[in-house]
Amino acid sequence: MVELSQVMKDKGRMFDWSDKVIKNLELSEEDKSISQAVDAWAKHIGTTGVASTELSQYLVKVVEPEVYNAPSELLDYMFEMDTIGEFDDVGIITNPVNRLNAQESAARTGNVDKSYIDFTRATKENVHLQIDTELKMSDLRQNGFKTIATLTQMSTEALNNKKFYSVFNKVDSLITSPSTQGFEASGSLTVTAMDDFSGYLLDNGVNPLIVGLSTDLRGIKNISGYDKFLSDNMKDALNMSAVLKMYDGVPLAQVSAGKKLPDGSHLITQKKLFGFADKIGQMYMRGGLRVLQTPDNNREVIDLKFTGFEFVYGITKLEKIAKLTIV
Amino acid sequence: MIDKNTVFNVYNEYDGNIYAPSAYNDLGYKFERSNEIGEPSITPVVFSDVQLINNKSAIFRNGTLRFDADLEDEIYKELRIMPDKNYLTKDEIEDIILNTDTDKLEKLIAITSMNTIEKVRSILIKLDNTNEYDIPKRVFDVVNARIYELAKGSVRSEIKLIVKKTIETKVEVKVEPKVKEVKTKSVETEAEPETVVEKKTTSKKTK
Questions:
Q1: How big is the A-B interface in CB pairs under 8 Å?
Q2: Is the ipTM value over 0.90, yes or no?
Q3: Alpha-carbon gap: B174 to the closest alpha carbon of chain A (Å)
Q4: Neighboring chain A residues of B148 at a CB cutoff of 8 Å
Q5: A300 CB contacts (<8 Å, ≥6 apart)?
Q6: Inter-residue contact A140 to A46 (CB < 8 Å)
Q7: What is the pTM of this model?
Q8: In whole angstroms, what is the distance from residue A82 CA to residue A129 CA?
Q9: Is residue B88 within 8 Å of B117, Cβ to Cβ?
Q10: Domain layout of chain B by residue ranges
Q11: Which of B19, B55, B59 sits opposite A190 (nearest CB)?
């Protein structure tokens, strides 16, 4: 029997365990003993309904690092990440615009009109996410550690997905199309459309990336006439995975079309490719996740409330975003 | 019946490049953005490619790419395009935004295509950024609300436009009857004294 509190101190250990349990992977000896320990207290809660804080403490300790500090490849790429306290606030300053004007003047005397550097404060977007749920005591008794593992994985996924969705929704609404940054491809992608889209990104940054739904990115390899640009290596790679890794030197990042929010919407809007030339702004995770727990003996459930998941972000470099819409 | 090899001019009035596939050229068509003073770009396209693009996308159906004005009806007939609620040209959208009223806002609510409403927003923001026009807040509200609805997937809109009641104000201007004058007159003339006064007062009451 292991001491759970000791295991929880090891960051990510419990999350790995729950991942293994859900996916029915082979458990190591330590994993098995974790399962036993978790099973014991899960069943204890299920049988007694005691209002101990074990469950909520466990969720905070295990889920919080996964949603707060875990590297999320795309968002880390898009934003400079930081954390602030629950009651703190930040001012996000946009990229200073150089409006200093050097003017010709009469020699050795007098002044010219003053000019200034444009420091503008960006509009911040505050998002607070919350989940309210219930856990049946009978489930805790029956499945024990499996219920806990499922809850761990699913709550993490729900919070992360929604965070991702709300950021991309904002980005989508910032760029209108057709416009300089909003390219429009009618019917299907063409070589010219993709060239201009990736060209815009290469011109505006050093570290570009194209993000899209897997179904849309797969369309790139089917662009008519594109096959002649494919090297043998790329053709081999294409036979292994359906999506190209790069287009004109811009990496392609796919978001699985199989991942969906509870309301059925995809994490990224369909038929749209988003391009980022560099980091586009700053994101701050605010405060910490709180899990509130109340046993309801009359209905034999445990009320759980995941709250305090809060983040602030400001998009400061609008010119570094481009969008390709397939009409 | 239009011959498949006829070449038509296709106009792009918008600020963004629009791309389309072609059966003859792998690079496809590129409809350049309009120039600085708003003149549309012109790209010649073979009619068979017009049909190809129309089959694949809504770019002609929603009025984004246009043809010569005198040929438009004929081409639309051939392409089986019936200008419907999602067909809005740039001029129509600008008219809705700048000379807005309830009927015109209803047109925005009737839109069911995300691309059309996004096109509206594109023009709306562009006009707003010029700082030359006074655009009512209700236009922004309707456009944003409709985008939100369409993003959720609800085609039938629940946006209701409520016309605020304006109470008709009756202004009664009370004019003091010029009794003195009349009286003096009546004294002088000694004929029809009362009736004259009444007539004068009623005629000067304005509603």
A1: 102
A2: no
A3: 56
A4: none
A5: A49, A136, A137, A138
A6: yes
A7: 0.80
A8: 18
A9: no
A10: 7-79, 90-152, 173-207
A11: B19
